[in-house]
Design the sequence.
């Protein structure tokens, strides 16, 4: 994510800047909830337009807790405890990581370190399952 307005955001995609609308399921006010540096999931309905359906917060790892969760700092939420997603390798304090809120099983999840791969290993399948199990696709893409 590069820039955000209430209705659209500029994203770096396929080597260029694209303007993408938010799905109605993305909570408003969006300029207070979505920031440059966030990673977003984009879905494309049958009409070919793209919409942002999810976002991961850009956070900093502060340390590991005794139960295996990670303490993160995220600018809009301060310190949060996040459970690592399956396959998320150990993240050292000071590393930037992508965190998400809203998926079942934990208040916060940490999915991947920022900048480790061209396409970070984030929980897209879980986001799709969340949308499917809660009947959100029609509202998001309709």
Sequence:
């Amino acid at each position: 994510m590069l820039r955000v307005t209430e209705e659209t955001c500029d994203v770096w995609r396929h080597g260029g800047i694209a303007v993408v609308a938010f799905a109605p399921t993305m909570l408003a006010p969006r300029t207070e909830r979505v920031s440059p540096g966030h990673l977003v999931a984009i879905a494309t309905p049958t009409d070919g337009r793209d919409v942002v359906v999810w976002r991961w917060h850009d956070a900093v790892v502060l340390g590991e807790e005794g139960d295996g969760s990670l303490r993160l700092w995220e600018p809009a939420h301060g310190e949060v405890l996040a459970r690592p997603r399956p396959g998320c390798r150990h993240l050292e304090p000071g590393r930037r990581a992508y965190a998400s809120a809203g998926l079942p099983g934990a208040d916060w999840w940490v999915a991947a370190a920022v900048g480790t791969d061209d396409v970070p290993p984030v929980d897209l399948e879980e986001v799709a399952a969340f949308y499917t199990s809660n009947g959100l696709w029609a509202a998001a893409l309709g």
Notes: Strands lie at 3-4, 8-13, 16-22, 39-43, 51-64, 70-74, 78-84, 96-101, 108-113. The chain is about 10% helix and 40% strand.
